[in-house]
Input
Amino acid sequence: MKKLSFITALLLVSLAVNSAFSQAPQVTGVSPQRQILNAPRSTQITATFNTAIDPASVSNLTFRVFGRQSGVIPGSLQLQNGNTQIVFTPASPMLAGEWMTVSLSKGIRSSGNVTMEKGFAWNFWTKAEPGTLNQSRIKTIPVRRSGEGHIQCYGALGCDFNDDGKTDLAIVNEISNDFRVYLNNGNNYDTMYSLHPMPAGIRASPSEAADFNHDGIVDIIVGNVGNNVLSYFRGLPNAGFDPELPYLAGNNVRGVAFGDFDGDGYDDVITANRGGNNISIFRNNGDGTFGTAQNINTVGNQETGVMVTDANNDGILDAFVACYSSGEVVLMLGDGNGSFTFSSRSALNGAPWALVVGDINKDGFPDVAAALSSSNRIGVIFSNGTGGLGVVANYTSGQFPLAIDIGDVDGDNDLDLIASNYAGGTFSAYPNNGSGVFTNNPITLPLQNPAHALQFMTVTMTATLTLQELMRSMICYSSSTMAQLL
Output
């Protein structure tokens, strides 16, 4: 009888071990926490799993860290705690106040050779240095070449294109249909480095940067508001770019964003198409090229802006979409296989042009804010972390705000907002009171020319663009110039 009990016990232990090895890896904890606002710049990044992980499945293809202004973050990977934790140690400190994305692919597998069922992603912010929203212009830098006509800078994309640890600029121009690269020399951006035409595009406007082909070099995507083309530029060493590769989206591409929507380890693209009344999903083929667009209706009308983050805490990227003519934000939940379905909608009391996401009220969940063009205000909507959206809070802005961006501009551990006002030629800066409440008397930053688009460096905003760097400067762009503020 004792012998039988011993055999039974051995069988139970064997079954338990086999069961543990046969489990699909699931992420049970992350560090830094999702949406945290002040992670140390040299922090280790950790994902904890429910089972031991096969070391051979852990690489910079299956565990990726990307900074919106830094680009690909280099570092080392190791397994700890009985191989149940993957730990990433950055090779050097990340930029201050930067929005970071950590992406885990389905290529991660358990010691029992079972892969993750879906990918996993989360966002956090690095700790910002002290700064101020009260700034004044210190210089103006021409973007238009000598003898050139109207080019209409719509916005600028801030990212490290030459891998020197400094954020460079790609300035997108609607009329000349191109983008122009300005490298950061440590003090300013006063010399044009290169010019890249978009022959397939019309009125090139929104842009983003990502490493779509896993070569460690930042690539650029640009939407064209005058037709249905998404322009794609593969990055080359030393801030060069291959010629334009055009892809067909829905009509009037007003917003672009990226993320690994299907968990295969390669970033995909989503566009908001105002004229198409839809969004388009471009899935990466696994080699840095994209398949045919999958067009999805969102229940809103005239989709104009889009931002991506995990809205319901399942580790899968979701899409916040600004719908212009229906005057609302629509939340589309990702399914982890490259598609999205409707979850929630909330009225904005105005027509949204651009939007941003981040944990505005510090409850651990991403919220959304939009520039409401013709109503001369911005709108802030809190999410509940389960796929629902609350009621909008509106704040007064300058005339015809087109763009908006978010970040801890003053370094006090909450997210501030800045909107660019096209008709007023100003920016409106909104300090956060610490609980997600702003003011109807924002700080006004004047410019000489109309304010189109903006991006801060460690924060990001719109051909009048705002940018914040470590030196806490802001660079604003208008129809043919950029003005540096400090």
